[in-house]
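Z., the sequence and structure:
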Amino acid sequence: MTDVVDSDELLRRIQRARAFAAQEARAWSERGDAVREVAYEAVLRVLDEIVAPGRRPAK
């Protein structure tokens, strides 16, 4: 069964996911795993676009 969440809770969950993705991108960068680093950076771009549409320049 799924929970119904309000917009504030949804935003908090997205922000937590974004923080986790940023942490993982840094960690994989330090380990030298470019493939995983790029994957987490892509997740960051998507989450940034959800939270703040159009604020982050496209690559």
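The CA atoms of residues 48 and 56 lie 7 Å apart. Residues 7-51 form one domain.

Let me know what you think.
H.
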